[in-house]
């Protein structure tokens, strides 16, 4: 949509698959000091680090020799944790405003076959770092050069009112050394810009791109798959949807296909039991 315009793609290709991911990260711009240097969205750190691993130049954001704090306790936070260790961080702390989950299933709260709400430890967590629960960032503190040097935390209580999450500070404030802060608090969907505008596509309320049973969007000959379609998810789903979209494109171009089509656009993840 920028280096190659939509008009050029339509002239040169009979079908286009949008596999553009869901990289628009959720931010918290209301936190005091968010503008300081050294505070980034998780993907700003992970993408440049992956490029370095592939030999595409040095990472522009590195954890080497720094106290790192990761805000968010999910899979993306775990990716940041493992990357920070490999880059030589002095310390790594993960923050989660939720209470620590039990190590065993609570049959009353999540009876089988419901997804069990239990504490999960990934290989990255097993490598080290500290996980702190029921805390939230109150503000960032900087040095004389505009770089983040620490953050102030507070113990919090999480409640819900009319379906909305309310996070209330309830404990004493704690100052934590921090020279690199990474927000890993979720994703809001596909990046917006000329590509979608020129194809006449608008994200859903979830920030994803919808499609029909043939993986085709409302733009003729334009298909979608992976995180762009289902929202930020696991790579195995992206692979399965990519194969299925390839099958759909083959049918669109030739009328038939022998390619595998492992999932349907409306498929939902199944719990592993």
Which strands sit side by side, in order, in the main sheet? 2-9-3-4-5
The H-and-E topology, N to C, reads as: HEEHEHEHEEEEEHEHH
Largest sheet: 5 strands, parallel
Number of domains: 2
Give the structure's gist in a few sentences.
The chain is α/β, with parallel strands linked by helices and 273 residues long. 24% of the residues lie in helices and 23% in strands.
Question: How would the blueprint of this fold be written?
Answer:
Layout: H1 6-12, E1 16-18, E2 39-41, H2 42-53, E3 67-71, H3 75-86, E4 91-96, H4 123-126, E5 130-133, E6 135-142, E7 148-161, E8 164-177, E9 180-183, H5 194-199, E10 222-224, H6 227-230, H7 235-254
Parallel strand pairs: 1-10, 2-9, 3-4, 3-9, 4-5
Antiparallel strand pairs: 6-7, 7-8
Would you kindly provide a written description of the structure presented here, covering whatever features stand out?
The protein is of the alpha/beta class. The chain starts with 5 loop residues before the first helix and ends in a 19-residue tail after the last helix. Strand 3, helix 3 and strand 4 (91-96) form a beta-alpha-beta unit. The longest helix has 20 residues, at 235-254. It has helices spanning 6-12, 42-53, 75-86, 123-126, 194-199, 227-230, 235-254, and strands at 16-18, 39-41, 67-71, 91-96, 130-133, 135-142, 148-161, 164-177, 180-183, 222-224. The relative contact order is 0.18. The protein is built from seven helices and ten strands. The model has no long low-confidence stretch (mean pLDDT 92). The chain is globular, with a radius of gyration of 21 Å.
